[in-house]
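Dock NAP; give full complex structure.
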Amino acid sequence: MQNSFYVNTKLIGLIGHPIKQSYSPFIHNVAAQLKNIDFIYLPFDVVSDDLENALKGVVALGIRGLNVTIPHKEKIIKYLDELSEDAAMIGAVNTIVNEHGKLKGYNTDINGLLESLTEFKDFITGSKVCVIGTGGGARAVIYTLIRYFKPEQITIINRTIQRADTLHSYFSEKMRFDNFKTADLFPPDLIETFHSSELIVNSTPVGMFPDVDDSPTDLTESFHKDQLVFDMIYNPTETKLLNLAKQQGAATLGGLKMLVYQAAKSFELWTGEELPVENLSDSLELMITS
Ligand SMILES: NC(=O)c1ccc[n+]([C@@H]2O[C@H](COP(=O)([O-])OP(=O)(O)OC[C@H]3O[C@@H](n4cnc5c(N)ncnc54)[C@H](OP(=O)(O)O)[C@@H]3O)[C@@H](O)[C@H]2O)c1
């Protein structure tokens, strides 16, 4: 509910680069309207060199909070005053709350991941998992899997293999999970890893709108029917990766549910209100697919 002069309106924002692909402004602005609360959510395209100044602006202007998206989820940490326990373990932040001038970082991607993956818990527990990517999304998924799903083994695949090694060491130390492997994003290493994994997670932006014909690597004969392939990308709702996995018999899961539930937790942190999840999931899907 915005009064006509916006004198009591609270501002929330999104910072990332690029941000045009984001549906977060739609989600949070519609949610605020449905809940009849006086919040506005705006996207800000901010490059890495401007992060510190952008956060000074948040404090100076009394902005209530921010979402943080690619590629800033890790770099932003050094400019925050405090971190939630989960965000500190993960080493990535997707939500900032401004509490009277002190900026606290949270990671609500965990909430989105839990809602998305819980129905597959029995399948994932004790299984072999591979995660493609090493950014903020990959960190959240590795943390969530180890903490809540207890897989037997996690293989981290990345274009830059040194980053996979760094992440492996980070989580081995932080979470005392030793059964990590790393693998190249190229055959034959990759195909072998795919074939032996029950859960495959894409945590790279490859295949995201507008470059929907891209896939992280050559994916012919990569999947089989005893697998779940999860792409964290939500636009398009079915990426090329998911389409190929489905054609080869695997079960598939897109990133839309994760998007809605990470947003729900962020919305609650900023406003103290529940996000109307059902209404938003339907209208989001309609908007993306139309
Ligand atoms: N559904 C949701 O709610 C949700 C939540 C979080 C994230 N996501 C999605 O997950 C994806 C990753 O997000 P993020 O925050 O983790 O991003 P990020 O921090 O920018 O991570 C980038 C990762 O992708 C890899 N990568 C980038 N371009 C590549 C290319 N052309 N070929 C191969 N690998 C490439 C990078 O490899 P290098 O290390 O070699 O550079 C790095 O490992 C995005 O699409 C994001 O929208 C969705």
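Observed: The mean pLDDT is 94.
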